[in-house]
Amino acid sequence: MTTLHLxxxxxxxxxxxxxxxPGAVIRLIxxxxxxxxxxxxxxxxxxxxxVLTAKVLHLANSAYYGLSRSISTIKQxxxxxxxxxxxxxxxxxxxxxxxxxxxxxxxxxxxxxxxSFLCAGIARELMLRLKRGARKAEEAFMxxxxxxxxxxxxxxxxxxxYQKVLEYARKPQSEAFSLIEAERxxxxxxxxxxxxxxxxxxxxxxxLVEVIASHHAPALPDNEHAPVLASVMMxxxxxxxxxxxxxxxFMITPPPVEASQQFALPESERAxxxxxxxEQARAMRQxxxx
Length: 290
Known about the structure:
It is a single chain. The chain is mainly α. It has two domains: 3-19 and 104-288, Orthogonal Bundle (Hypothetical protein af1432); 20-100, no CATH class. It has helices at residues 3-17, 23-33, 39-47, 50-60, 74-81, 83-100, 107-130, 134-146, 149-157, 159-168, 179-187, 191-201, 206-214, 226-242, 257-262, 267-288; strands spanning 246-247, 250-251. A two-stranded antiparallel sheet has the order 1-2. A hairpin with a 2-residue loop joins β1 and β2 (250-251). The model has no long low-confidence stretch (mean pLDDT 90).
């Protein structure tokens, strides 16, 4: 059997070996998304985990939110940031913790998570500019933060095979390839597909599953999820541009035209926005990932 078929078959097995998200986080998602949650109910789910509580409060007080006063309790965070923002902080922390699995992240992983925090911040900002409401903005943040989880799975569970993908970027014929095209050619799958499978395994909301699985799609879907997906696509693209003209050495694939048109900004305004969020993203990555 070829390596392609082995990887394709083994990916699904590996996905089911990855631990589920903590039950309290799943209950938190369901509770907040029901729109019937009280601050006391949400607080009780989070404070049951002291490590999660500490990281949520650390993030809430980070430069990303730029608050004028310090937040010392989860209840304060809920009142100031909103239920969906706090829920997504808890979800992001839990997802990254499960994927780290007690390991010290490699330099490639740290680079990836910093890119993901930057993408998340840009996507959130773009949705706020569309005036679609705080909930959609927070969905965009979470889509941006988790859009590359498939790379983490491939990089950590298939290190030798994924190293071949990264090495391919140094070969002359790679100049016209994107990372996702190299993954498909060498592995028979790609990180968007793998990330979507993991999101389903974790029972994440349908919109989040679609954003993760479709963030490299050639066109936007004709459904209610399109604006959030478009914001993540733009965040992904602008974040890679911020760190250079390549993604791990591969060509950066531009987002669909309709996504670019939806969030067209003057170059100077775009550059200032990305630079501002990049500084915040670096601090958030250090808090959550290390």
